[in-house]
Amino acid sequence: MRTVLEQLLASAPTPGPTPSIKSLPEVIGGLTSWIIGILAGVATLFLTIGGLRYLAAGGDPAEVERAKGALRSAMLGYALALLAPVLLDIVRGIVGA
User: Fold this and answer.
1) Do the beta carbons of residue 53 and residue 67 sit within 8 Å?
2) Helix residue ranges per DSSP H, the chain
3) Whole-structure pTM value
4) What is the SS3 assignment for 2?
């Protein structure tokens, strides 16, 4: 017959796996992926909006300028998405990781 202490120990929950702590380069690598994805998504949204505005402008100069502004913003967003790894490498160099 088992003692009360043995029964309590047998029914105690087992500890789960301990969470792993990521190193700074791993965190920066994850940030790079997230930043590139967000910038590319926002740039694609602005590209779509600019294209639709340009198509719907109907020759109105003010509306054409607004469309061109959205297209410029899209190009800036794509440029930032391409430069994100470079910028994060600079940060990694400053931090020393």
Assistant:
1) yes
2) 4-11, 24-56, 61-95
3) 0.62
4) coil
